[in-house]
Write a structure and sequence with these properties.
Blueprint lengths: L14 H63 L5 H28 L6 H15 L2
Helix pairs in contact: 1-2, 1-3
Length: 133
């Protein structure tokens, strides 16, 4: 029986074997982190796409409602002395609505989760573990 030949079941021994195991561990760790980054990127892309689609759809229906409401009010007040008051009221109403909507969009954009937050937290934990004695 020849004892010089290593079986494939035992890990390599020595400095080269340790370096090889370390490199394999680093590559595996990097692969896991890149998968996490890719998943978070895909989630963010899906979130932004659905947000954009919803916003466009909501704006379309809001605009159509707005046009029909303005036409209704103007038609109702056209033959009265209050038609200019109706136009001024609608203008102020839409200006206030635009300000509120703009403020809501601004708050929504500021409160979004930080991109790659989970990945960065995992990398921070990894760094802490590597730096600890």
């Amino acid at each position: 029986m020849n004892h010089d030949i290593q079986s494939t079941d035992t890990p390599p021994v020595g400095l080269f074997g340790s370096v090889k195991n370390l490199a394999a561990s680093l590559v595996s760790h990097l692969h896991t982190r890149l998968q996490l980054f890719a998943t978070e990127f895909a989630e963010e892309k899906l979130r932004l796409t659905s947000l954009l689609f919803g916003a466009i759809l909501a704006l379309f229906f809001a605009f159509m409602t707005l046009v029909l409401a303005v036409l209704f009010v103007l038609a109702a007040y056209w033959d009265t002395p209050y038609r200019l008051h109706a136009v001024a009221f609608l203008t102020v109403l839409f200006l206030v609505g635009a300000g509120i909507a703009g403020g809501l969009v601004h708050m929504k954009l500021k409160s979004k989760p930080r991109l790659f937050e989970a990945s960065l937290a995992e990398l921070y934990k990894d760094r802490q573990q590597l730096n600890s004695p």
